[in-house]
Amino acid sequence: MVQCEMCGKETSSPNTVKIEGAELQVCDECAEFGTEVTTEQSSTSTKYSTGSSSSSSTSGSTSTASGSSSSGGSGGGGRRRDMFDEMDEVAQDYDERIRSAREAADLSQEDLAKNLNEKASLIRKLEHGETLPSDDVQRKLERELGIDLSEGSTPDEDTEWESGSASGEYTLGDVVERKD
């Protein structure tokens, strides 16, 4: 038996769904809150099921967690796409990456701001971690400094969590306080 990572309920067949950018193992009841994740067996890429089978030509072979897809009027139907599916996450150490690349290029904050056509105060806030770069500013910084600000180059950040439950795993219920 596996615990649902949303509600903590024991389930024998968990569903893998993507909810606001995070892939979770959830029970059937919580699966309706996200987009079902299916893994193709012929490749290592992960596909996200949106309820309509755009890549397979056989009808009726797709499985969705909920069968209520009658509200779609333009032929898309099925489950809504998660807006976080195609988003690149900014690395947690983006501020250090920006500062070290700027210093390596021997640029002041004002010079970098002038090269990017941005304000120096924005560069200061980015380097102090006070604000996240917009997509446009992120592209400018990556191009100007020759760095990558996307998440993925340091995957060991999640190893500092330790479990407080008997099964050795955290659920959202362990971390979040409900306001009922």
Primary descriptors:
elongated; 434 Repressor (Amino-terminal Domain); two-stranded antiparallel sheet; 23% helix
**What overall form do the CA principal axes indicate?**
elongated
Share of β-strand residues: 5-15%
Secondary structure category: alpha+beta
Q: What average pLDDT do the residues reach?
A: 73
Number of domains: 2
Number of strands: 6
- Tell me the helix content: 10-25%
Summarize the structure.
By secondary structure, the protein is α+β, with helices and mostly antiparallel strands. The chain contains five helices and six strands. The longest helix has 11 residues, at 94-104.
Could you explain how this protein is built, in words?
The chain is an alpha+beta fold. The chain has 2 domains: 100 residues, no CATH class; 52 residues, 434 Repressor (Amino-terminal Domain). The strands form 2 sheets. A 4-stranded antiparallel beta sheet has the order 4-3-5-6, with no helix packed on it. Strands 1-2 form a two-stranded antiparallel ribbon. 16% of the residues are buried.
Write the layout of secondary structure elements.
Blueprint: E1 2-3, E2 10-11, E3 15-19, E4 22-26, E5 35-39, E6 46-48, H1 94-104, H2 109-116, H3 120-127, H4 135-145, H5 172-175
Antiparallel strand pairs: 1-2, 3-4, 3-5, 5-6
Helix pairs in contact: 2-3
